[in-house]
């Protein structure tokens, strides 16, 4: 008999980031009050599903997003560095002025020479490789049931592009991956047969935050990733 398994890629909730930094992999960035509400909404919406395995990026915002769902399901999340945020050469820079930030800092232009790789950060194919390795482990751990992997916008979107055999080159505003959204990978045995998408906390996202306010062909993107 065919065994059906679903691996949900859950993006973390809103982060407290008053300085508008592209914080990337930096520690010390936690969910805002709204982000905590989003995480609880996910637990309320999907906590009754057949979820038997949770793994999460080691960054605080991801662990805090996983916590309410893990509590509802009675699970101990597995920390998995393979689903961490992608690395970025612009990490730590404030992008409150959007694209003007780059225009005012010519020394940053040298990182923008190749949007296909991308030249300013971790290569897309490397992101997809590490993410899919974690997805396969989550699938195996939850075979016949459901698993949740808590990660970040770019790794999740890159994984979706990989699964749908689409080009990695994209504009950040085109990413269908809002705060606390679920990108769900449906497997029949080991074969990926479908990708679906839902937004359990979509009504909590402030107007104007549903799309990234700045991009450079996939470079520094949003102030609250």
TrEMBL record:
Organism whose genome encodes this protein? Nocardioides gansuensis
Question: What is the recorded name of this protein?
Answer: Histidine phosphatase family protein
Q: What is the lineage of its organism?
A: Bacteria, Bacillati, Actinomycetota, Actinomycetes, Propionibacteriales
* Pfam families assigned: His_Phos_1
Query: Coiled-coil regions in this chain?
Result: none
Tell me the first and last residues of the signal peptide.
none
Identify a single GO molecular function assigned to this protein: phosphatase activity
Cellular component annotations (GO), alphabetically ordered: cytoplasm
